[in-house]
Amino acid sequence: YPWQRAPETQLSEFNLTETEAMLGSYTKVLFVRDPFQRLISTFMQGMGSSPSFSSFVQDVLDIGQHNASASWKPLVSLCQPCLVQYDYVVMFGFLRQELGHLLRRAGLPADSLLPTFTDSQVRWTYSWLSEQMFSELSLQQKQQLSHFYRRDLAAFPFSSSFLSD
């Protein structure tokens, strides 16, 4: 169907028959990351104009899910896991192991194709940073964030997320 739509066409713009036909022949891989870590990353990259993490989180909560940036919008609303049956879900922090497995399943030499990943090396940094940033938030902000990302937390195994509590 590429001749019918522009490259930036959203999957939700196709009807169910078109979607099933397109996705039926692809290996579908979804890359996911803890939503709280996504917020921290967005803030650290300066994508929000807020002076503190707490005020950035308040801006995110005030904007809401419908007007949210893709940088912090809940993954479930972006990737539609109920509509798309993904073949693989790759978690940030395990890219090398999971992509190696994926390449081997595809019959490709994993070791020679994979670049050096730093995601597993920065996990401890994000753990420390998450703890620091989470402590800046009010109880109400913590509860609102957990509610904001409730579908992501239910859909994906973010067992160590600060928002899971």
TrEMBL record:
Keywords: Carbohydrate metabolism, Glycoprotein, Golgi apparatus, Membrane, Signal-anchor, Transferase, Transmembrane, Transmembrane helix. It is found in: Golgi apparatus membrane. Its EC number is 2.8.2.-. One of its GO terms (biological process) is dermatan sulfate proteoglycan metabolic process. It is a single-pass type II membrane protein. One of its GO terms (molecular function) is sulfotransferase activity. One of its GO terms (cellular component) is Golgi membrane. InterPro entries: Carb_sulfotrans_8-10, Sulfotransferase. Belongs to the sulfotransferase 2 family. This is Carbohydrate sulfotransferase.
